[in-house]
């Protein structure tokens, strides 16, 4: 009998059961919810909370007594709808527009013309301690062969005020046929500011046809991330370097620079043409993100009376120290505004966990338990007829029912079981055959499980450990106590039968320490279930970014993970009889055992490939964040697509930022650009600080760049990737020895012979 129809008749029984039980136990299912429909206040009582369409939560405010010092907002009602501006704080917060003419062959700058404007506020997020403002776009436009007009937009924030531009959430963008945009902060007052000059380059001269809309790829548009060690960014401007005339100004007279919220600007080719096309289109400005904090004072130590003027006044709120000052947050299980009295309100977890898979994992309640919200948390109880700790996934049947009810139910069960049983036997056999049982029975290395056995192994499908392509993944324990993961596979129809059998045979033949072993399968179900080796630490993605996050991952562990997964993939690619590719290489598909040994998993999209030939699949499968751009365009899958995906994984491993797909691949592109500029260290996980370690990461970054080449032909193959990583691993061991005797002797990335060789080979 299929799982679906089994659970169907199960649920009928359970329905009956709960109806009978309801008579005895009343009031079981009610949920204590928050008062629905009523929004909690965001500012102090009696204070206006909106300017036009912009919400103004405390500590921001407009009227007297409605804001903390530095957070005053001015609402200008001469606009329809009214617009919000940051108060100038005695002339310390403003935007300065500077116009300057350049004339003559030497491009001599003329007398600048200055004009100040107020800083417009877009919105505020108290949760993230962020506010967004409009900043104007800087431009430089040629008007003739000997004359150009520059317009620069300086942003000045009060140095003693609550705001700093976020180096993480903003980027520098340059737009133009040939432009090197650069960001200047603090205007050269300190040496640090001079050293901190992120810049990016777009050079298209003579190749204007090569632009791509959307993508900021260095062709007409470039982007630079701001190094996280930024000086305190209270003053900044986007400028240009060098400011001399360039050929081709007639068709594309202007270059633009802006400091803007990352991923906000989408390049469009028309921005290259016409006078002030971009700055005219975005005349109001572009959004930039500011971090705000209470700059005066620190969080009071535990148990001490908070000082006068302490900002975290809501009950159920907490305080968190920042580099300068502190911010307030609502405690766990509360949300709202921690800066006002009673601002933090209880979260209704039961309502939230219905909204997404992530929230369900965050607020677990297994076995269809009954979730009920309470102040400061939630309860999850087993449903009627069950007992145990549902929140941990333990519910067991209890039967202390009135005798009459038991008899009634028993009769019902006996009748239905008898009816179903004859049916079921036939069905089991049918599924077994449909799923290729007779063929697979003859294959060694693979064990065929009965449905009953799996039920026992998984303790009645009790522990869900994840979600695969086609359904849940369960944990199980074999008789010898070995843990296994049991995964529902795709439903097999007649046409797919051969393909499925081949797939199982290939997977069971893959025997490598870095590939998750397929141990067996169960075919007596509608969609076959596959039994795999279990990896205790979950996926690399979870360990880097997710629920199983580990704060400190040393570089040698990362190298070990990189080398191991490369070995696994190289092994897979080198299988003798046929060419195999994984098809969905990503950090979520690299599992880690308790010793951090990586195991490549989920061949969900693997297909057999005839050696040397690429197969065109109709639909794009796989994870967009990791997908080969060539695959996206042409649907052609090769082993080189796996190499690309692995390049993204390497990048995640060294930067510890998850890859985010944004059509423009700007994150991958800026990482690659930074690596080529020898600036990749700006991206690295900040937890890695030793110079030797950083050098190692740079070498891994170089390998990642070789994997991320847009042209698949130019990418390394998996075997070469593995060799490069093994060499770096060797350098790392050598380095560890050398540093202990002679200080830092770590090699430069160019010392990796293989990388050099492949480059030379390609040049020939
Ligand atoms: C409102 O904006 C207008 C137009 O920019 C400006 O002239 C005026 O001074 C502003 N009013 C206030 C109160 O800032
Ligand atoms: C730049 O030159 C133009 C005329 O060529 C003039 O109208 C404009 O005022 C000048 N701007 C500045 C800032 O000097
Ligand atoms: C840029 O493109 C993304 C995705 O297409 C879109 O969500 C976003 O609003 C666009 N940004 C602008 C400023 O149009
Ligand atoms: C926390 O919130 C609950 C209700 O949401 C309230 O009863 C309790 O007093 C609050 N705690 C503090 C310290 O204010």
Automatic annotation (TrEMBL):
Residues 459-729 form the Protein kinase domain. Keywords: ATP-binding, Disulfide bond, EGF-like domain, Glycoprotein, Kinase, Nucleotide-binding, Serine/threonine-protein kinase, Signal, Transferase. Residues 1-28 form the signal peptide. GO terms for biological process: cell surface receptor signaling pathway. It is found in: Membrane. SMART domains: EGF, EGF_CA, S_TKc. Coiled coil: none annotated. The keyword Disulfide bond applies. ATP binds at residue 487. Residues 346-396 form the EGF-like domain. One of its GO terms (molecular function) is protein serine/threonine kinase activity. It is a single-pass type I membrane protein. One of its GO terms (cellular component) is membrane. This is Protein kinase domain-containing protein.
């Amino acid at each position: 009998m299929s799982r679906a129809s089994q659970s169907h008749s199960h649920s009928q029984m359970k329905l009956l059961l709960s109806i009978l039980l309801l008579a005895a136990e009343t009031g079981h299912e009610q949920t204590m919810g928050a008062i629905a429909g009523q929004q909690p206040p965001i500012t102090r009582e009696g204070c206006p909370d909106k300017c036009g369409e912009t919400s103004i939560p405390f500590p921001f405010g407009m009227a007297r007594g409605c804001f903390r010092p530095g957070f005053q907002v001015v609402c200008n009602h001469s606009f329809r709808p009214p617009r919000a501006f940051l108060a100038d704080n005695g002339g310390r917060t403003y935007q300065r527009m500077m116009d300057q003419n350049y004339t003559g062959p030497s491009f001599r700058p003329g007398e600048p013309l200055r004009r100040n404007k107020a800083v417009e506020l877009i919105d505020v997020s108290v949760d993230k301690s962020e506010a967004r403002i409009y900043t104007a776009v800087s431009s430089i436009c040629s008007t003739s062969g000997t004359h150009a007009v520059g317009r620069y937009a300086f942003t000045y924030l009060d140095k003693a005020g609550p705001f700093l531009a976020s180096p993480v959430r903003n980027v520098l963008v340059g737009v133009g046929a040939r432009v090197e945009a650069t960001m200047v902060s603090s205007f050269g007052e300190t040496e640090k500011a001079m050293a901190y000059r992120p810049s990016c380059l777009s050079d298209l001269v003579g190749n204007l046809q090569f632009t791509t809309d959307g993508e900021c790829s260095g062709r007409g548009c470039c982007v630079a991330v701001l190094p996280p060690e930024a000086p305190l960014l209270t003053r900044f401007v986007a400028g240009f370097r060098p400011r001399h005339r360039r050929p081709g100004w007639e068709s594309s007279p202007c270059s633009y620079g802006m400091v803007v919220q990352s991923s906000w600007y989408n390049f469009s080719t028309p921005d290259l043409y016409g006078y002030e096309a971009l700055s005219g289109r975005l005349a109001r400005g572009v959004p930039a993100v500011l971090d705000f904090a209470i700059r005066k004072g620190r969080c009071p130590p535990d148990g001490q009376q908070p000082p006068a003027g302490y900002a975290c006044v809501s009950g159920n709120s907490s305080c968190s120290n920042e580099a300068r000052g502190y911010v307030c947050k609502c405690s766990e299980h509360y949300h709202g505004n921690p800066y006002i009295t009673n601002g933090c309100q209880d979260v209704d977890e039961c309502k939230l966990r219905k909204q997404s898979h992530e929230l369900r994992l965050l607020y677990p309640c297994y076995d269809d338990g009954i979730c009920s919200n309470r102040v400061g948390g939630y309860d999850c109880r087993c449903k009627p007829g069950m007992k145990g700790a549902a929140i941990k996934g333990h519910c067991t049947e209890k039967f202390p029912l009135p005798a009459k009810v038991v008899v009634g139910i028993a009769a019902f069960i006996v009748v239905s079981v008898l009816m179903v049983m004859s049916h079921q036997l036939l069905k089991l056999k049918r599924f077994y055959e449909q799923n290729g049982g007779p063929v697979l029975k003859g294959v060694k290395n693979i064990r065929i499980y009965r449905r009953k056995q799996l039920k026992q192994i998984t303790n009645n499908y009790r522990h869900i450990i994840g979600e695969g392509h086609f359904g849940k993944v369960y944990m199980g324990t074999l008789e010898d106590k070995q843990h296994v993961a049991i995964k529902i596979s795709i439903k097999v129809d007649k046409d797919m039968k051969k393909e499925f059998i081949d797939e199982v045979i290939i997977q069971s033949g893959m025997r490598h320490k870095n590939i998750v072993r397929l141990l067996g399968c169960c075919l007596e179900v509608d969609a076959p279930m596959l039994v795999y080796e279990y990896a205790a630490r979950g996926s690399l993605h979870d360990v880097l970014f997710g629920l199983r996050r580990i704060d400190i991952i040393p570089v040698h562990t990362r190298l070990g993970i990189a080398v191991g997964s490369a070995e696994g993939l190289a092994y897979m690619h080198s299988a003798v009889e046929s060419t195999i590719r994984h098809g969905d290489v990503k950090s979520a598909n690299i599992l880690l055992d308790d010793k951090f040994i990586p195991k490549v998993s989920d061949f969900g999209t693997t297909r057999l490939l005839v050696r040397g030939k690429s197969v065109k699949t109709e639909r794009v499968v796989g994870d967009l964040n990791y997908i080969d751009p060539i695959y996206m365009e042409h649907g052609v899958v090769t082993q080189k697509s796996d190499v690309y995906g692995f390049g993204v994984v390497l990048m995640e491993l060294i930067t510890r930022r998850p890859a985010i797909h944004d059509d423009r691949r700007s994150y991958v592109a800026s990482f690659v650009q930074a690596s080529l500029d020898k600036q990749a260290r700006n991206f690295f996980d900040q937890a890695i600080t030793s110079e030797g370690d950083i050098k190692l990461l740079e070498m891994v970054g170089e390998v990642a760049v070789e994997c991320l080449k847009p042209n698949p032909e130019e990418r390394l193959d998996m075997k070469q990737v593995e060799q490069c990583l093994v060499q770096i691993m060797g350098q790392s061991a050598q380095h560890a020895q050398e540093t202990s005797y002679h200080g830092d002797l770590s090699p430069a990335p160019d010392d990796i012979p293989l990388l050099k060789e492949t480059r030379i080979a390609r040049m020939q």
